[in-house]
């Protein structure tokens, strides 16, 4: 224990302060360098498809973050708003982000000293034959021994109060690297939160378009069944009148039965899509059925031209690339944490308080007790454990670097696939529209020829069947086209910015 009245006390504090300031800037371990992200010069490069499927962007502007508004569908807008506010998946991602921030605050708290106060009142009695008895035997001895032991073993009350302070000098940057790793973890969880938002918007949109496609198919099927049944009644009248044979009648009945057999499957598909949307919004099955079946909307196949932005901006937008970069940053900082464990650590400690077995003398200056001084932890031998940890952290950093490069390559593969599929379906949709128009013209022409006696009824049935199939294929193509637009935005990392807090409110 040091005496504050001694001249060396001030010198000791000055020496410790100078040493602290001298070593404070020493940080071991590699510094993180932002990796270089490869990207094509333009959107016509890095493509694996035929030239006929290569897309040319309308401008260098990027697609809007709230890309779903291009569909101009108020029902979809309301569903996504509810999803952003109540989705369990999004709430889970937001909670993980909040945990990362709390962990960062916990880590950063190591940079300052720890202060704690303590106090207590205890009733004690010492043993007459304890370790202190040997000292009594050596000092008191003789006849006075029993009186001294009896006096010291009488119960007494001990009053104690004071505070402790300790501070670990961050000589080798262990705490600084820990805070750096924690900051990287926060950045990773922020990117994963953006990924959850993007995935949620994409999943809701795809389920919604699947629902609208099924409803459109149901509507067309019922419309076609009604038309065929009306014609079936007419054929039955012709057969009863002897102006038509049973062959045409049976063929028409087969066509009606075929359409009726497809209707239950479409109804089941409609319910499955409603359930999928309900799950994404965190509501029980059936709650959204009335809202989603009240007024089915037509699918919008006229989407805006693609404005993809600059290829070099993709790495800044894609959440998975940002998350991989943050993991690499954290792994790099962890090497410095492991290397700092190879060197000595110094902790400054101080304690001041009062201690007395007499309640009336507890506040007396003579009852004070204090201590101050550094403690040193010097690793000497641990069978190579600390060096093995350093090697492990280096290998983990190399793995994170490989994972980053793989993530970038996967991103461009997904972009290429999404753009190729979008262009292919866009061309297919155009051909489907031409097919519907041609099938409609052929059906109308066959009806006119039949009514004029220039064609038989089999020709009418064949053209009608082709027209029905073309309309249903067009509905499927329209829904697929909308899904391709969703896939392009997800591949490009167009993250939505809904008005939700990053940290959910406590329940």
Which terms would index this structure?
507 residues, Outer membrane efflux proteins (OEP), four-stranded antiparallel beta sheet, 12 helices
> What gap, in angstroms, lies between the N and C termini?
51 Å
CATH architect. name of the domain at 50-113 and 172-343 and 386-492: Up-down Bundle
Give a short account of the largest sheet. 4 strands, antiparallel
Low-confidence stretches: 498-507
Helicity, in percent? 55-70%
How many DSSP helices?
12
Shape: elongated
Number of DSSP E strands:
4
Strand content: 5-15%
- The CATH first-level class of the domain at 50-113 and 172-343 and 386-492 comes to Mainly Alpha
Task: Write structural notes for this entry.
With 507 residues, the protein is of the alpha+beta class. The chain has a domain of 343 residues: Outer membrane efflux proteins (OEP) (Up-down Bundle). Helices cover 60% and strands 9% of the residues. The protein has a four-stranded antiparallel sheet with strand order 1-2-3-4, with no helix packed on it. Helix 6 runs antiparallel to helix 10. It starts with 7 loop residues before the first helix and ends in a 15-residue tail after the last helix.
């Amino acid at each position: 224990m040091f005496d504050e009245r001694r001249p060396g006390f001030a010198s000791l504090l000055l020496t410790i302060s100078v040493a602290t300031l001298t070593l404070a800037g020493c940080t071991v371990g590699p510094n993180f360098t932002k990796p270089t992200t490869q990207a094509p010069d333009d959107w016509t490069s890095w493509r694996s498809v035929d030239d006929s499927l290569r897309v040319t962007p309308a401008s260098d502007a990027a697609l809007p973050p709230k890309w779903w508004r291009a569909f101009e569908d108020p029902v979809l807008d309301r569903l996504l708003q509810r999803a952003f506010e109540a989705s369990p998946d999004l709430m889970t991602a937001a909670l993980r982000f909040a945990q990362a921030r709390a962990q960062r605050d916990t880590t950063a708290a190591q940079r300052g000293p720890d202060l704690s106060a303590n106090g207590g009142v205890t009733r004690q009695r010492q043993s007459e034959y304890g370790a202190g008895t040997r000292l009594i035997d050596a000092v008191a001895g003789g006849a006075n021994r029993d009186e001294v032991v009896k006096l010291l073993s009488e119960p007494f009350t001990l009053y104690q109060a004071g505070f402790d302070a300790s501070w670990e000098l961050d000589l080798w940057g262990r705490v600084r690297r820990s805070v750096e790793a924690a900051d990287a973890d926060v950045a990773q969880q922020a990117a994963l939160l953006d990924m959850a938002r993007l995935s949620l918007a994409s999943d809701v949109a795809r389920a919604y378009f699947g629902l609208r496609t099924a409803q459109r198919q149901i509507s067309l099927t019922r419309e076609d069944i009604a038309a065929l049944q009306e014609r079936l009644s007419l054929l039955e009248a012709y057969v009863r009148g002897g102006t038509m044979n049973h062959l045409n009648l049976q063929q028409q009945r087969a066509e009606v039965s075929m359409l009726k057999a497809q209707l239950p499957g479409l109804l089941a598909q409609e319910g499955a899509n409603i359930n999928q949307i309900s799950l994404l919004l965190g509501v029980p099955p059936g709650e959204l059925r009335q809202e989603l079946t009240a007024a089915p909307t037509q699918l919008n196949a006229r989407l805006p031209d693609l404005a993809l932005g600059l290829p070099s901006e993709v790495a800044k937008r894609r959440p998975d690339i940002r998350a991989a970069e943050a993991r690499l940053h954290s792994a790099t900082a962890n090497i410095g944490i492991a290397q700092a464990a190879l060197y000595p650590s110094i902790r400054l400690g101080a304690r001041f308080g009062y201690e007395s077995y007499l309640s009336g003398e507890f506040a007396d200056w003579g009852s004070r007790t204090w201590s101050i001084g550094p403690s040193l932890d010097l690793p000497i031998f641990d069978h190579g454990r600390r060096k093995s940890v350093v090697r492990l952290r280096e290998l983990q950093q190399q793995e994170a670097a490989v994972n980053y490069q793989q993530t970038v390559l996967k991103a461009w593969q997904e972009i290429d696939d999404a753009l190729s599929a979008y262009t292919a379906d866009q061309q297919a949709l155009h051909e489907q529209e031409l097919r519907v128009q041609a099938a409609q013209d052929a059906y109308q022409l066959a009806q006119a020829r039949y009514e004029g006696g220039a064609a038989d009824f089999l020709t009418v049935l064949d053209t009608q069947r082709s027209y029905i199939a073309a309309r249903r294929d067009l509905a499927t193509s329209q829904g697929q086209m909308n899904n391709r637009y969703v896939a392009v935005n997800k591949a490009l990392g167009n993250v939505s910015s809904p008005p939700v807090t990053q940290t959910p409110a406590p329940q």
